[in-house]
Amino acid sequence: MAERDPSAQFGGPFTNSTIPPPRTRIFKIIVIGDSGVGKTCLTYRFCAGKFPEKTEATIGVDFREKLVEIDGESIKIQLWDTAGQERFRKSMVQHYYRNVHAVVFIYDVTNHASFRSLPAWIEECKQHALGSEVPRILVGNKCDLQDSVQVGTDEAQHFADAHCMPLFETSAKSPNSPGTHHNSDHVEAIFMTVAHKLKSQKPLVLSQLPKGSEGTTALTGRIEGDNTAATWGSCGSC
Ligand SMILES: Nc1nc2c(ncn2[C@@H]2O[C@H](COP(=O)(O)OP(=O)(O)OP(=O)(O)O)[C@@H](O)[C@H]2O)c(=O)[nH]1
């Protein structure tokens, strides 16, 4: 006797062939900081696994994506590599901040001016209504250039603490160099830390696709509620 299809006993409308596959969640992470700090190199390093041979100043924004698995769930990390130069940002800037899930602030450890610019980047986030529930991290890049360091760890840590952000120091060029004190790929670990943080928050609600647009990739998301649990640090001022 033929075995019955186990799904048939529930009498529901779905069969195996009609159950929609689970949608892949997308985490939109914007990467901001002065021109030349290494935003393109860091995002490329994470998504392509290597240091780019050549980069040019970003105009507007570049997108890089990587599909990762966290606790058995496939998640697309979408990195928005934004232009550091003001003249290349103007027309795009409002798009950067729409539906952002996390922000990565980058400075160059060999360029103190890029560190002094951080309050202006934080202010820009504020002006675009980015709430304190959106996780932020601070990354000091180019740690392979040990002889040229202008921003010490203590100074950076002080700033990070004051703004309730975790601090990471790394190098897009040689993330495993002695200067970075890490054995595994540190750049990968940094972005994965952000992704784990986002996954541990309340579930993202995917916006409804308009009828008839199924099959397109126009998925956007937002994080539901709970403004208190999302800040990384514990200072009350952020
Ligand atoms: N030594 C070293 N050089 C780096 C590192 N990361 C980036 N660079 C170099 O710094 C320069 C600028 O890097 P980009 O990634 O293009 O900088 P960006 O922040 O994207 O610049 P904009 O697109 O103008 O905003 C390039 O010459 C890179 O090769 C690093 O970790 N170590």
UniProtKB/TrEMBL annotation:
Classification via PANTHER family: PTHR47978
Name by which UniProt lists this protein: small monomeric GTPase
Protein family (similarity comment): Belongs to the small GTPase superfamily. Rab family.
Keyword Acetylation: no
PROSITE patterns assigned: RAB (PS51419), RAS (PS51421), RHO (PS51420)
Record GO terms (molecular function): G protein activity; GTP binding
GO cellular component: Golgi apparatus
Signal peptide (residue range): none
UniProt subcellular location: Endomembrane system
Keyword Zinc applies: no
GO biological process, one term: Rab protein signal transduction
Catalytic activity: GTP + H2O = GDP + phosphate + H(+)
EC number(s) per entry: 3.6.5.2
Domain of life: Eukaryota
Pfam families: Ras (PF00071)
Membrane topology: Lipid-anchor
Names of required cofactors: Mg(2+)
Keywords, ordered alphabetically: GTP-binding, Hydrolase, Lipoprotein, Membrane, Methylation, Nucleotide-binding, Prenylation
